[in-house]
Structures are given as C-alpha cells and as structure tokens.
Amino acid sequence: MESNTVFLPVILAVVGLVFMFIKMSWVKKQEAGDEKMKSISKSIKEGALAFLNAEYKLLLIFSIIASIALFIISQLVDTTHWIIVVAFIIGAIFSALAGNIGMRIATDANARTTEAAKTSLPKALQVSFGGGTVMGLGVAGLAVLGLSLFFFLFVTMFVTGEGSFYKEMTVALEALAGFSLGAESIALFARVGGGIYTKAADVGADLVGKVEAGIPEDDPRNPATIADNVGDNVGDVAGMGADLFGSYVATVLAAMVLGNYVVRDMSTTTQFTDAFNGMGPILLPLVIAGVGIIASIIGTFLVKIKDNSAKEAEVQKALDLGNWTSILITLIASWFLIQWMLPETLKMSFFGEGIQEVPSRHVFYSGMIGLAVGALISTVTAYYTSLGKKPVLDIVQNSSTGAATNIIAGLAVGMKSTFLSVILFAAAIYGSYALAGFYGVALAASAMMATTAMQLAIDAFGPIADNAGGVAEMSELEDHVRERTDILDSVGNTTAAVGKGFAIASAALTALALFAAYVTFTGIDGINIFKADVLAMLFVGGMIPVIFSALAMESVGKAAMEMVQEVRRQFKEIPGIMEGTGTPDYAKCVDISTKAALKEMILPGLITIITPIIIGLLFKAEALGGYMAGVCVSGVMWAIFQNNAGGAWDNAKKSFEAGVEINGEMTFKGSDAHKAAVTGDTVGDPFKDTSGPSMNILIKLTCLVGLVIAPILGGHSAESHASNTQLIKEVQVESELKDNEKSVATITTTVVKDGKKESKVIKVEGTKEEVAQAIKKVQE
Amino acid sequence: MESNTVFLPVILAVVGLVFMFIKMSWVKKQEAGDEKMKSISKSIKEGALAFLNAEYKLLLIFSIIASIALFIISQLVDTTHWIIVVAFIIGAIFSALAGNIGMRIATDANARTTEAAKTSLPKALQVSFGGGTVMGLGVAGLAVLGLSLFFFLFVTMFVTGEGSFYKEMTVALEALAGFSLGAESIALFARVGGGIYTKAADVGADLVGKVEAGIPEDDPRNPATIADNVGDNVGDVAGMGADLFGSYVATVLAAMVLGNYVVRDMSTTTQFTDAFNGMGPILLPLVIAGVGIIASIIGTFLVKIKDNSAKEAEVQKALDLGNWTSILITLIASWFLIQWMLPETLKMSFFGEGIQEVPSRHVFYSGMIGLAVGALISTVTAYYTSLGKKPVLDIVQNSSTGAATNIIAGLAVGMKSTFLSVILFAAAIYGSYALAGFYGVALAASAMMATTAMQLAIDAFGPIADNAGGVAEMSELEDHVRERTDILDSVGNTTAAVGKGFAIASAALTALALFAAYVTFTGIDGINIFKADVLAMLFVGGMIPVIFSALAMESVGKAAMEMVQEVRRQFKEIPGIMEGTGTPDYAKCVDISTKAALKEMILPGLITIITPIIIGLLFKAEALGGYMAGVCVSGVMWAIFQNNAGGAWDNAKKSFEAGVEINGEMTFKGSDAHKAAVTGDTVGDPFKDTSGPSMNILIKLTCLVGLVIAPILGGHSAESHASNTQLIKEVQVESELKDNEKSVATITTTVVKDGKKESKVIKVEGTKEEVAQAIKKVQE
C-alpha cells in the first residue's frame, strides 16, 4: 500500500491548487471600486498581459530551438529518452501558467486592496495577502503536481526491473531534468526580461515625469505611469514567481537524483528495498515539498491584524507569525516523514572516504541547517538593507558630503554584506555535507524551499500593496486610503529585501545540489582544479556573472532612454496632456518597455545557455564542472553585493522622508544630502531589481544545462569511470565469503592503456559485507 | 665550469645595480632649480621618508611576530630549516631598500625635471625617465641578487648529495620561499598603506582646497598639498615598486620550485644530470631574470625624443621603442638560454596523464605566450581606459543625464573589461600548460616579468612628471614649464593604466604558479572541489577580495575625513594662510595621512595573512587550496573591474578639459555633465589607486602564505601521499629488467587502512624504462 506514496505529493499539490482557486474566487468577489479605479486596474492588467503575450511569442521560438536541441541529445545518448522534450515543454508551460495566474490575481487584487483600504486596513491586508497566497499556491502546487506526475510516468516507463534499478532510475530522472530545464528557461525570460522592463519603465517615468515635468509619482498625466505599475507586477510578481518556481523544481529534482545515489550505495550487496518500492530516499524530497504546501496554507490563516490602528510593526508581526508557523509545521512533519520513508541507517559514498553509514536523523539535521541558514541569511540581508540600521545610516551620513561619498558608502555596504552571508552559506555546505553527504546538501535546500508557497505569498503581497497605492494616487482618493496602503507597501519593501536574500540563498544551494548531481551523472572523479583546463574554466566561469551584470545594467539604460523619448514625444504632441484634458497613450509606453525588455534579454540569455554547452563540448565534463563552480562562486558574490547595495541605497533615500540627523542637524527631502541619496538610489535600482536577481537564474540555469548535457560529455581524463569502461578488458574475482569469519577475495582487473596491458590485483580481507562491497564497487 | 652558472645571475644583477648607481649620480648632478623649488622638493622628500620611517616601525613589529611564527614552523617541520627566518628578514629588508631607493630618486628627480623643462623637453624626459630607470634597476637588481645569493647559500647548505636530490632541493627552495614572503609582506604595507595614503591626501586636499576654499590644485596655501604630492610617490612609486618586486621574486621562486619537479620527473630511472649540477631547469628562470635586466638597460638608451616640439605621441613612441626592444632582446636571449640550459627533451608528469615527454622548445613557446598575453592584457586595459576610445566616450555621454548614469556607465565599463582580460588569461593558463605543464605556466609568468626593470622605469616616470608639474605650480614658474611637464604627465597617465593591467596580469600568473607549487609541495592529489570542505572554502576565498576591497575603500574615506578636519583647522587657526603670508603646517598633514594609512591597513593586512593559516590548520591542505583558488578567481575579477572602472572614470572627467561633443553640443569643464563626471572620478579614485591594486598583493600573499605553511599541513584525504606514507606497511618489488626485450615487474603494496590490511599487486609490462619508471613512482 505504501508503494502508492508516489500519489501523496500529487494529492497534496491538488489540495494546494483547490485552495488556490477558493482564495482566487474570494479575491475576485471583492469590490473593485469606482469606474476610475477599475479602469486603471484594467490598464495595468492589460499591460501586464501584453508583456506576457509578447514574452510567450519569444518563448515559443526559444522552446522550438531548445526542443530540437534536446531531441538531438536524446538521439545521441542512451540514457536520455526523447520524452525529455515533452517534459521540457510541459515544464515551460507550467511555469508560464504559474506566472500567468500570479499576474492576473495580482492585477485583480490591487484595486480591490485600495477599495478595502477605504474602510478597513485589516481587510486591505486580507485582500493583498490573499492575492499573494494565490500566487504562492499556484507556483508550489503546479511545481509539485508537474514533478510528481512526470516522475510517476517516467518510473512506469523506465523502471521496469529488467536492468539495474539505479540505471533505470537514472534514465527516469534524466528525463525529469527536462521539466526543470523548461521551468528555469521561463524564469530566465521572466526574471531578466521582467527586471529590465520594470526598471526601464521606472527610470523612464521618473526622469521625464518627476525631474523634467515636475509631476509626482504615479500621476495619471504621465504616459509611462501605467508601464511603471505594470513593471512592478512583471518584475516582482512574475519574475520572482518564476525564479522560485525554477528553484523549487530544481531543488527537488537534484535531491531526487542524489537520493538515487543513496539507493545505489545501499545496494552494494543486495538491491535495496523498502516499503516504497526501493524509492524512499528518492521520493522523500517530493513528499516534503507536498507537505510544505499544506503547512503554508495553515500559515496563511494566521496572517491577520485586528483593527485600523495597526502600524507596520503589527503587519510585519502577522506575516512573521504565519511564516514561522508554516516553517515549524514543515520541520515537525519532516521529522516523521524521514522516520517513515528512510531506513534507519543510510549508506552513502563520501568522496575519498568510501561508503559510510549515516543515521537517517542526520538527514533531518541537514534540513534544519538549511532552514536555519535560510532564516539567518534573510536576517543578514534585512540588517544590511533596513531603515535605521547601521549600514543604511552610514550611507545617510555619507550623503552629506555629496553623491560620490554616498556611492562609495553604498558599494562598501553591498560588498561587506557578502561576509556573513558567505560564511553562513559555506557553513551550510560544510555542515549538511558532513551530516549526510551531498544528499544532505540537497535536503538542506529542499527544507529551505519547502515553504515556497508561504514565502511567495509574503513576497507577492508587497507589489500588490505598492500597486494599490498607485491606484489610490491615480484615482485621487482621500489621503487616509494612501496612508493605509503605504503601511502595507512599507512592510512590503522589507519583505522584498528579505525575499531577495532568501531567493539567492536558495538558488545557490540549489545550484550546488545540481552541481553535485552533475558530477555524479557524468561519472567523473570529482572536479580537480589542479588541472589547467579546469582551472582556466573556473576563471572563465567567474567572469560570466560580471559580464551578465554589466549587460543587464546597460540594457536598463538603453530601454529607459527609449521610454524617455516616447514620454517626451507624447508631452509635446498630445494636446492638453498636462492640463489633464488629453489622455496619454499608456499602451504605447507599455509596448516600448515590453519590446525593449525582450530584445535586451536575448544576449545575456544566450550567453547563459550557450557558454556551458560550448565549454562542455570543447573541454569535456570536468572543465565544465570548473566553469559551473566559477559561475556559482562569482555569481553568489555579485548577487549579494548588488542586491544589498541596491536595497541599502533605496532605504538610505527613504530615510530622508521622515528626516534624519546628520552632524547634529535634521535633514529632510529636498536637501543636498537627499539629492545625493537619490543618485545612489538610481544607481542601485538596476542593481537590486535587474542584475542582482538575475544572478539566481544564471547560476541555476548554468548548472541545469550542465546536468542535461552531462550524458553526452562523459568523463574527461583517463581515470574517469566513463573512459575506463572502454579500457577494462577483464575483471576476475576469486572470493571466499564466510559468515562470522574472515572473508578473502582476490580481484584481478586487466586494463589496456595506450597499447600496454596492465593487470591490477587487489586482495581484500575483512568481514563478509566489507568484501562483498569491495567486489561490487570494482565490478561497477 | 658551467656548474658555476649559478653566479651568472649574480653578475647580471650586479651589472644592473652598478648601472643604477651611475644613473642615480647623473640624476643627482642635475640642477635642482631655485631655492623655492628646492625647498618644495625637500618637503616632498621629507614627507615621503617620514611615511617610510613610520612604515618601518610598524614593519619591525610585524617582522618580529612573523619571524617567531616562521621559527616555530621551522621547528615543527622537517623540510623547513630555521634559516627561513633569515631569508624572510633579508627579503623584507631588500624590498624595503628597493622602495627606499626608488622614493629617494623619485623625490630628487621631480624638481630637476622641472628645472630641465625650463629649457628643454628632451632633457626633462631624460631626467624623469632616468629617475624611473634607477627605480626599475634597483628593484630588479636587488631581487635577482637576493634570490641568487640565497639560492647559492641554500644549495651549499642543503644539497649535499647525501639524500635524494629532489628532497634536498625542496628544503633549499622552501627556505627560499621565506625571501619571497618577506618581499611580499613589504608589498602589503607599501601597496595597501600607500594606496590609502595617496587617496586620503588627494581627497582631503581637494575637498577643502578646491571645493571649500576655491584654490587650485597644488596651491602652496593648501596645507595638504605636500601630503598630496608625497602620496603620488608613496602610492605610485613605492607601492607599485614593492608590488612588482614581490611579483618578480615570487614568479622566479615558483618557477624554480616547479623546475625541481621537472628534475624529479626526469630522475625516474636514474638521477638526472646536466652541465649545471642537475639544476638546469631550476636555474633557468633565475638566469632569464638576470638577462632581462641587461635587456632593460639596453632598452632605456632608446627612450629619447629629439626636440622641444615633441608632443605626447612622440614621448609615447620613445617609451614603446625602449619597451619593445628590451622585450625582444629578452625573447631572443631566452631561446638560446633554453637551448643551453635545458635538455632537448624534458619529462614532466601531467595530472592524470602520467609522465610525458616535452621538447624544450615548448618551454620557450610558453614564455612567448606569457609575453603575448601580458602585452594583450595591457592593450585591453588601455582600450577600456583611454581618452577617445568607445568605453570612455560612453561614460562621457552618460554624464549628460547626471551622476547616476555616469556611475552606472563606469561600473558597466569596468565589469565588461573583465571579459577579454579573463579570456586571455584563461588562454594563457591553458596554452602554457598544454605546452609544458605548470613549469610552462611559471615560465610564462617569468617571461612576462623578465623586463620588470623596464616596466617599472616606465611606470615610475609618470609620478615623477606629475610631481614635476606640482613643483612648477607651487613655485609659480612660467606657463611653458608646466605645459612641458603636462605632456610628460599625460603620457604617464596612460602608462599608469597600462602598468596596472600588467601588474594584475603578472600577479595572477604568479599566484597560479605559486598555487601549482603549493599543490605539489603538500603532496595532495590536486584540489577536488567536489569535496564539500574544499567547495565551502572556494566560496569563502571568493568572498575575501570583496571584503578586502570594501575595507580599503572605507579606509580611504575615514583617512580623508581626518585630513579634511586638519586642513579646516589650519585655515581657521593659522593667521594669514590664505593671503600667502602665513605658512601652513605641511608636516602635520603628512603625519596625519601617514598614521591614518598605516592604522587602516592593519585589518585588511591581518585578514590576508591570518585567514589562510586558520583555514589550513582547521581544514587541511586541500581545503586551503580551494580557498586560494577562490581568492585568485574573485581577486582577478575585482582587480580588473576596479582598476578599469577607475581608470575610465578618470579619463571621462579629463575628456571635458579639451571639450567633448554631447548630443551635438560641445561641453566643457564646469558644465553639469562635467560635474557628474567629477563625481564618477571621485568614486573611481579609491577603486583604481587603493582597492584595485591591493588585489595583486592579496592574491599573491595568500598563495605565498599557503606555500610557506604547506609542509605543516600535509595531505587531507586518505589517498594523499602524505597520509599514505603513514599507512604503507611494505612495498615489495620483483622485477626483471631486460634491454630490447619485454620487462616485467610485480609490485606488491601492503596498506593498513582503518584497521584493515589491504594488499595491492600491480603487474607492469613494457620496456625497461617504462617498468623502472613505474617502480620509482610507487616507491616514492
């Protein structure tokens, strides 16, 4: 009966999706306000969908090319079945669908939040967070559903019991990697394209509107104002959603691949069996993800405030309560799931140390490390980017001596913030590996990602509140409405910064789990950077995130310039626009942002996908591993640096709104120091919203592409398994296995190498199990 | 007779030093101008020496601590003799001496250049370049002299022929590493401390002088003006000199260490012998360095211009002619040296590919790769930072929309400049390794560094010309004097940017050669980043350059603020200072810069030295290797990024002096765009003069510290040689070696591992040499 556990995650995912639909219809039933509000909300929605539709067209072309490439790979490689193409396409569709659902509900929820804020702050929170919940559950539900169904299908297709379980499962998981690749490809378009879109619109709207025409933010006379509000959704809702969808799927996949190695290592003497058809360690990450959805649903019920007098602190407390509750439930559930699904003692091969025994509770501790490090990195991020904390205050102080010192201080804050984050991250790798090998590392990532639904609900609520404020402004509502949405928006800014910390931490751990899966997939003996080609590629990999960031930043500049020219044109050519009698052509601005964003993302996108393929084909598997490591190390640094510098600059500028004390004097908006802080914020905008978050996609996609092409690379050097198989002529084993007595075996391996014949005789003495294990190892 | 070749580099070094003294007395004999000029020059000299003296005090404390630490290491480890302490101290003294000579001549040459410029531009070039030549020859001569004498001493002490040549030579080279460590430690103080000094004085002088008091640059009424001019010498002369002294010594050392492995690999059957007591491959790098000194001297004779009508292009051409001539001579000489000193066919063990035969001309080709890549990286650097080229013009264009877009454009230029530099660098690693293994990589670095004397002469001439302009300004001389020194200064700016490209390229190759020497020293099986501890340390290593840069940047800010307050105080308290009747207290400003610089460099210095020691002791040799690789990869990116962004911002600002066309309009100094460009330049100052160049020291010192502590770390994993030696119980060899027939050997190795006894029998068949080689390998 328990062998049907494969359906458990399916059921949990469906529960999540059902709850999503209930929540969605509840949000939609809310009052959307007067005609003006409805019309604004409609414009934003249309703009957002216009971006999505344009993106889909580009995606279609990309998917066709990628599908053909995958099909060719599947024809060249034994372990890759053509069905990987189907998995890829469905992965892309599911990810796009999740983004679509999120965008629709976010753009539905904004005006409804504004309307609710007219009478009640608790209701406004309920609506905006409800929108976020729909987004979160959509992403998590579709991810788990897709993964489980495909896994079920592939197991049925490939794990027939005719050949070795391990090899058949490898084929199944290789096909499943297609689903993950599809999901991450969409993330590339959504995160990078969305990042360019949102900043191009923002900068374009500000430069002409605020600076040249002197009209306030979100003023309906500004032709780019709708594009700006669309941008919040495109970047922060769809982009973040696709990013986490990709991480979520990739983490679970990597953990499953590494689970398969645990099964292999446990099958040295006899094939490992358990109540889950011998798939316990492989299924576990999937089930934990499913349970995380339910825990997230429970958590969302706790996110509420009492009355209209609530301030930021109460809203934040409500979000924290929901978040920690769902984390705690997942943690407790994981303890029992691990007891249930894993054998009490696992066997894992540790590099250079042979096969070791690991108690299953160590896997749980690895998960705890993942959760703890995720929370701590978020805390570090919050410290470096929050109002009133030392780093932001430092930047504020340095604004008094001009823009240059503000910039230097901001850069320094971003750079310094890498210290604790990287130490924590390194400790997570070290600790979870020491506990349970790379399976432990993958489980740490899985635990961190388990409550993705809740994380996304909290993340998506921010831009909805931000948009609600925009709707209030554009509809010229009473001040108390904007004040209420501002409370929500302000909390949203903090959660956005923390969310970015979470996103990069999870992306980095995901990438590492994929990296481990890659090394094991290719069958190489690790990645030795003492080989010149591997070392050279480590440097090349380290350079890619830097170039990618530069391209992304420049793209924002170019796209913003196009927007500036269009807004200037409209101000000149459309009569009565400044007097409020003429209507600006919002759609034209949306169109420009859309086209520019998608055009500009092609080059960095191509670099991300094609570079690992070229390196893999030219320099083979181990050098590609070096490249992947270089991308990850450098990518993590540049992501943390850019995200936190950008976040800190933003809040340094915001500090002036309430007034700050500089050299004993209170300083406010409009002062020279404030102007310097605005310069810093403008520099930080592409950092924190475009190039910084793009690093997540870059490192994950690099490792995923590597994993998918792994089977065509094979080992590189002569010692690798892959090339050894061609060289080994003969393995002879003479053994005497005795219970409770010393067993002996003589293993003779004959190898033909460079035309020379070499025999290697290994004599093994020890207990029966030890000898059997050694024989098994040689025979493989 | 040829066995006395060890004296050849000594003789060449002495020739270089003699020529240096001749040049020095020639420069000193030149007219130093009127009393005012002499007094200004004297103040600068006194300030520079005051910095050096303060530095020496700090150094003394540091050297005592480091000496004690080294002595303890030497007592713990068999292969480390206590004499390493002496080598360390002499290395530090030689490096300090080279810096001292350079500073003295540079501060002597400035007023003499000004005086010469009164009548003749060719003479002014001759004097300023003469000063640079003294610096260059002092550095190169002392480096080669120190290395050769110590090598001779250590070979006499340790290579007695009683034990294995390879092991005895290892002890000698390990002691020689102390000399290199001493030199690099001084570089840390000179480069980082000097970098902080020069920018603190510069920013401090500008903020109060130019901005607050409205007096021009180099105005004698500014109390910080002497400190500013001292800073040019402290940062660009002493700092750059110590940096290259360190690189030069470390490169030659690493090449010698790797040469010893070539000797070992060639001694598998019988001990390798040649006309150089079996030390040909070890001596070669030392001899090439010595020949490079002579080639540089010849090159310096070609640096001259015809008459006063010469412009920047002629001066640049004269420098290029000298530079390329010395490179060409070195190249040709290297061809013959390699023919003479290396056997026609070398044997080298390539990782995972066993021992391979390499023709000696491949070593020459590796050297050519080093020279080509050094020149190309310098060209790339020049492209990204030169006036009139696209990157700088892009920044200029982006200045028209304000400081923020200027900053973004500058950051993007710096980031994009990593692309070609890293590709070239990776190609150098890949190519020189493919040709001649890590010995080839080290020879590539050696070839690049061979003409260090010439490179430094060109580098040091810039700040001398800059100072000469300052002296002209402060002495209120006629305009044509300043115009002439400005021509030299302008060329000096270009050579400074190119010099920084050369410095980072050579530092990176040096670090790699040290890294290779480290891996071989520790006897570990390479650096496998598929092990979690190694991977974790790769991330930690990647973070260090980021933190180091942040600390260095902040240090500049703090030190500059102290300077600002002092200058403000003097303006307020010293009567008649602005009217020119009161004399400012220059010495006080020099003192503040000195103290602040040395105080601020302690933390980054400690991080650099202590982190690798902690990691080595806690996580063992392989993890430390991961850390070193992380520091190198990340350090190279951040160095290129910061140097080139800073250089490009600087020239973007300078573009406005001659006027630039922005959107069809000519824009000049004082415009809003120019103000934005000034902001960019201010951000870039610490980038290009403090944190960027510090990366060179960081990566080299990290690898050197690793190399010095290598013997106490031993191998980490069970497969390493170091721990195997404890486990191997017995090696039995039965062999039948026959000429012209098939030889056979049976090697039985018995190992005790985790209480189990394992025997490994290897049967080898092949020619006599092949079998002998295999036996040798196992026995080692």
TrEMBL record, chains A, B:
InterPro entries, per database record: PPase-energised_H-pump
EC number: 7.2.3.1
GO molecular function term, any single one: inorganic diphosphate phosphatase activity
Marked site positions, Determinant of potassium dependence: 496
Organism of this sequence: Tenacibaculum jejuense
Entry membrane topology: Multi-pass membrane protein
Name under which the protein is recorded: Putative K(+)-stimulated pyrophosphate-energized sodium pump
Subunit (UniProt): Homodimer.
